[in-house]
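Subject: for your reference before the review

Hello V.,

The reviewers asked for a structural picture of the protein, and I figured it would be easier to keep everything in one thread rather than splitting it across files. Below is the amino acid sequence we used in the manuscript, unchanged from the supplementary table.
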Amino acid sequence: MKEQKKEKIKIREDEMAFIRRKAEYWDEHSLDEVWDETVPVKTRINLKQSRCLVSVQPDLAENLAKVAVRQGISPATLVNTWLSEHLAQVTKH
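And here is what came back from the structure prediction:
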């Protein structure tokens, strides 16, 4: 098996600086300090929703992650979209 190139996901410098500033802030502060500034949020949680985990070969997972990043979506969203599209085509016949 030939050695695969490991390609790091590129994050823009300004995005990384933003992430660092936020991380530094929360390293030094507590949510307790700003609790009075928070607002209540109503949300629904579907505890009946289930997930099915499927093993993916490492090289496929790596390529999948690259495509997902380029499209600005998560790998899970990309896989679900592709599977839905493929199943829709297969079940038409």
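For the response letter, the relevant points are probably these. Residues 13-38+49-92 form one domain. The chain has a mean pLDDT of 86.

Happy to draft the paragraph if you're swamped.

O.
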